[in-house]
Amino acid sequence: MSDSSKPVAQTWFGPITAVQRRAMFALVPVAVAFGLVVGLAFLPVTSAFGGLAKVGSETVLELPDELVLPPAPEASTLYASDGTTVIATFGDQYRVQLEFDQIPESVTNALVATEDSNFFEHNGVDPEGVMRALVTNIADGGTSEGASTITMQYVRQVLSYTATTPDEVAAASEVTIDRKVQEMGYALALEEEMTKQEILTNYLNTVYFGNGAYGIGAAAQVYYGKVPADLTVAESAMLVGLIQSPSNYDPINGSSEAAQVRRDHVVNRMVDVGFLTSAEGEAARAEGLNLNPQEANNTSGGAIDSDYGFFVDYFEQWWNQQADFGDSEEVRKARLYRGGYEIVSTLDVDLQDAAQEAVEKQKPTGSEYALGSVVVEPGTGGIQVMAVNRNYSNDTSDNGPNTSNSEYKGSYPNTTNPLLSGNSAVAGYQAGSSFKMFTMLAALEEGLPLDTTIYSPYQYTSKYIVGDGEASCGNHWCPKNASKGEVGNYNMWTGFGESVNTYFVQLAERIGVEKAINVAERLGIKFRAQEDLNFVQNSPETFGPFVLGVTQTTPLDMAAAYAALPADGVYCPPIPAASATTLTGETIPFESECDQALSVEVARAAVDAARCPTEYGAAAGTCTWGTAPQVGAAVDGPVAGKTGTTDSNSTNWFVGFTPNAAAAAFIADPDSPQNLVGKANLGKPANAVADILAAQWDMNGEGDFTPPEELVH
């Protein structure tokens, strides 16, 4: 007798074929283990708890809070420092939260009929479905049926969308008995805590429908341009049909025919279950898809969609480094994009707009030369401005003159390179004489007073060995002053005001250049260029050219470093945010980890000398002339700072400050350092800072510089 002619056994869930019977006996151990779960599904939930714990793990019944009250992903909003101006949003899911009474019966009926017809009868796990799937899968040798109830599917999708690492995402949906047992355990426990209506509502608010739409509210808008309450039966069926595979049944970007076949299947299930009459089903199947596609209101723009892209980009990089928001960058980013934070940044939009205008006035967007500025608040480290003559954009297809060169990575006018803040790939730009500040600070720390006088020739042969080159005499570094007329006795006021190179090289020789490097490091200067780092780590005492700013740095680093001076020596690492408020209303304050990097008197003495370049005038000594008189003329208040020009005018800088703001600006060609800015562009960073600090003083003209009582004579 053939297998096909043998009597077929009958069970409460249907007939078992001979092929299925053999498969079941062949895999008795697996079936027994899995059968425990099925048996538990028949027990009262309180009895099932203990059994599930034995089958699965000890934590299988520790119901996570998010399953009962799921933290539906919500975009985070970044505000300006005023707390009201939105400058960016961060979110990766378009979602419209609905209450149960906002979801039409046609949607819930379609879902139950298609995904779980026994939904209102079982307690989270459907015994009939489990056994049917078990028998089928054993016979097929695969996992063609999953027997997942709506409650179990809801558990899985919540675990997936609350996952923050690739491993957690994979674990939430891996096909293993342990995972299935845990899912069942959660489902049983969940139905003790939630009503059927609550489960349906949460499920339909979180499930993905394709084309960027999460939840039925978003899906109704994306596919039909309407709210769910206005959906027809056929439209409801089409949307529910997408749940099984949004890509395979996508009627917008995929196959409308496949979508209609799937929709009709859902309608047929609604008729089979009794939610529709045969006539109603026939009418629904007769309808066309009648799509009215809409763009998903995707809030994932972040820096790209912001008018303040460079600041927003820096903020996101900063956020991703904050350990308080998770153990990894993936966790932190997920919380930013899904946590619904209301974040108040440090960006002053009025000053930012004034700074952008000042930058564009000197060098409009589209120039090959990047001109940018950063403003940092002394005493807090708050970044108030990040302005540059570039567009923050991924679209760099038409950038620069050499787009035919596949290796060319032009940054004008569009770029996402952190030109103002730097990273591992952007070391920055040589800062020139603005680095003389660190040598002066180190000398003051060594007890040399401001009136330390040194005869300074036009060219000076130093003790530093540099090998052959334009700035070498033999193999010694022998820098020159800017003009042959700069010869004579100088002190810190006059040497700093006129930017006398040979004065500061000799000052560094007296104290040791390594001490100047140490001061720079204490004030947050980072050495991103490998050549600079090699000197600093291996032989700082020989790094003489450091004094005159051959080191590459960024406007953010320089603004933060100089901000320590009006703050009486307190250095605050730059910070882009003031606070964040969670969905539960808890406010988390952010504060920079400030440090007394310099003594009060050293800082005040340096400020007094730094008043000379702007011709604001020193309080404790006498200035001659300054290299940036336009800054003192523009700012209607106390102002100090320092110009920075490199050899051959490859870059140009100015770093200046008032009692309550420090601004750094540079001009360079970040894509081709050999493209020198030339004499025509010298002074433009100082001009920009002059306008920025003038605007800042008009907005917040408070405070004064306190003259030093020590380290003067």
From TrEMBL:
Residues covered by the Glycosyl transferase family domain: 86-270
UniProt record, GO biological process: cell wall organization; peptidoglycan biosynthetic process; proteolysis; regulation of cell shape
Region (Disordered) residue spans: 391-415
Recorded GO CC terms: outer membrane-bounded periplasmic space
UniProt catalytic activity: [GlcNAc-(1->4)-Mur2Ac(oyl-L-Ala-gamma-D-Glu-L-Lys-D-Ala-D-Ala)](n)-di-trans,octa-cis-undecaprenyl diphosphate + beta-D-GlcNAc-(1->4)-Mur2Ac(oyl-L-Ala-gamma-D-Glu-L-Lys-D-Ala-D-Ala)-di-trans,octa-cis-undecaprenyl diphosphate = [GlcNAc-(1->4)-Mur2Ac(oyl-L-Ala-gamma-D-Glu-L-Lys-D-Ala-D-Ala)](n+1)-di-trans,octa-cis-undecaprenyl diphosphate + di-trans,octa-cis-undecaprenyl diphosphate + H(+); Preferential cleavage: (Ac)2-L-Lys-D-Ala-|-D-Ala. Also transpeptidation of peptidyl-alanyl moieties that are N-acyl substituents of D-alanine
Pfam families from the UniProt entry: Transgly, Transpeptidase
Recorded superkingdom: Bacteria
SUPFAM superfamilies on file: beta-lactamase/transpeptidase-like (SSF56601), Lysozyme-like (SSF53955)
TM segment ranges: 23-43
MF GO annotations: penicillin binding; peptidoglycan glycosyltransferase activity; serine-type D-Ala-D-Ala carboxypeptidase activity
Similarity comment text for this entry: In the C-terminal section; belongs to the transpeptidase family. In the N-terminal section; belongs to the glycosyltransferase 51 family.
Identification of the protein by name: Membrane peptidoglycan carboxypeptidase
Organismal lineage: Bacteria, Bacillati, Actinomycetota, Actinomycetes, Glycomycetales
